[in-house]
Amino acid sequence: MKLNRSLLAGLASVFLLILGCGGGGGGTATPPNPTITITPATVALTTNQVQQFAATINNGTGTVSWTASAGSISNAGLYTAPAVAGNAVISASMVGNSSVSATANVAISNPPTSVSSVVPANGTTGVNVLLSRITIQLTQPNANATATIDFAPTGGSGYTTSVNNDVITINFYSALSYNTKYTVTVTNIDTPFSSNFTTESIGTQVTNNLSGNVVWTMTGSPYVIPTTSSVYMLDGCNLTIEPGVEVIGTVYGLTSNNLITAIGTSSQHIRCASGSFFGVNGNYKYCDFLGFNPATTLTSEHPAGEGGFDSCYFDLNNYLNRSIGLVDSLNVGSKTMSNCTLYLYQTYTSSSFFVNVTSGTIKQCYFDYLRFVSHNLGEGSSFINNFIKGNGSSPSIMQIDVYYLSINPMYTVSNNTFDKFQSGTITAFGWTSLTPLTNYVLTSNYWGTTDTSLIAAAIRDHTTDVGNPITVIWAPILNSPDPLTPSTPPIARM
Length: 494
Fold this sequence. Notes:
The protein is mostly beta strands and about 500 residues long. The protein contains 3 helices and 45 strands. It folds into 3 domains: about 35-110, Immunoglobulins (Immunoglobulin-like, Sandwich); about 115-200, Immunoglobulin-like, CATH 2.60.40; about 205-475. Helices cover about 5% and strands about 45% of the residues. Strands 18, 20, 21, 23, 24, 26, 28, 30, 33, 36, 38 and 41 form a 12-stranded parallel sheet that branches. A 9-stranded parallel sheet has the order 19-22-25-27-29-32-35-37-40, with no helix packed on it.
C-alpha cells in the first residue's frame, strides 16, 4: 500500500516531538554554591589606622562574622590596625555556614615621623634669654631622632638633647644671648624640620662696681653682667633684688660687709643664671638659681659669704656642667636653708659640689641626684628632715665630710630619708689627723629599707676602710619616712 507523502511527514514530526519531550524521564539544574567577596582585598595601613571592610555574599543571602589576625575588627567590619608594624589577615565567614569564607590581606607599617609642635613656636620673638629648654613634639616615638640648635651667632654650644618616646628636649646649660636668632633643626625623621626663634632685647647691662644701697627693679630687668666685666660690691654695699627680676652673670664681694637681699614671691620668682654671687652674704626666698651659685667661696681671695635660703630652686647641674671637674661649695654657714630643691644631674661624676653648714640648719630640702653633698657640721648645726635621692647606681654618692669636727661634736643629723642608694655609695670621710677614731652619728634616719644588711653595705667608713678614722653609727633607724620630710620637691623642677 502506498502511503501519502504528507502523512509520512506528519508521522515524522510527531516522532521527533516525542523524542524532544524526553520520554525517558527528567530533573532540575543544581544552583551554584555561595561565595564571599571582601572589599578591599588588599590594603596598606599605618599603625593604629582605621579601615572599613565590606563583605558581599554571592549566590546567597545572610550575614558574616569578622576576625582579624592582628589588630581588631568590629561586627560591622571596621578594622583598627595594631600599634606594631607587620601583616594582618582579615577573615569574613558566613553565619551558619562557616565553610563559606574569604580573606583580605593588610600590610601595616609605621607612619612617617614628623614634628607636630615646638616650644618656643617657629618665628617667636622676644624669647627670654633664661629659657631652660626647648620641647619638640613628634607625631610618634622615634629613638633615632636628633635635634640641634645653631649657636653660630654666639659661638656657644651649651646644651644637651634627650629623646623620650615622642618628645625631644633640648636643655640649656646657661643663658642665651640677647637679641639673637637661633635655629632648631630636627633630623633622622621622615620629614626633616627646622624652626627659629629670636631672644629678647637686653634690659640693663651692668659694668660698673656697686656701692651704697642699690635696687634692681622689674623696670630694668634683666640685669646682665658681661663675662668680660668684673663687677664688685664695694665695702658696705647693700643690693636689693625685687620680685620677678632676672640676673645673669657674676657679682663679687670685696669685704664681708656686703649683703644681697633677694625676696621673691610664690608667683614672681627671682631668677639668676650663668654666674654666681661670689663671697657675698645674702638672704634669698623664692629664687631660682639656674647654673648659678649664690653663695660660693671657691678661693681665699674673697670673703666667705654665706646665704640663707627659703623655697629656692637650684639647678646645680647647669652650674657644674659649664666647668666639668669644678670643686665648689654652697655655703649656708650659720644661716638656714629650708624648703629648697637642689638638682644635680647624676652623670657628671667628675664634679664635686659641697653644701656647707657650720652652725646653721638645713631642713626639709630635697636633694635630687646629688653626687656629693657635704656638710661640714659645726657645733649646733642641724641636717634634719631632708630627702636625699640617689639614682640607684654607684655614681650617685652622698659624701659626708667631717674633718672640721671635734671628737665630740654637737650636731644633729636625723629624720632624713636616704633613697635609692647602692652598696658603697654613702661615704663618711675624715682626715687621718682625726685621732682617736671618731664616731659619726646618723641615727633615726630612714634608709629606704629596713634591711639592715643593705644599709650597712651602702655606707663606707672605718668598718670597710681602716684608713678612714670615721665610724658611722646609723642604728636605730626609722622604719618609715618622717612625715615632716618631703617626698617630692618643695619647689618643682624648672
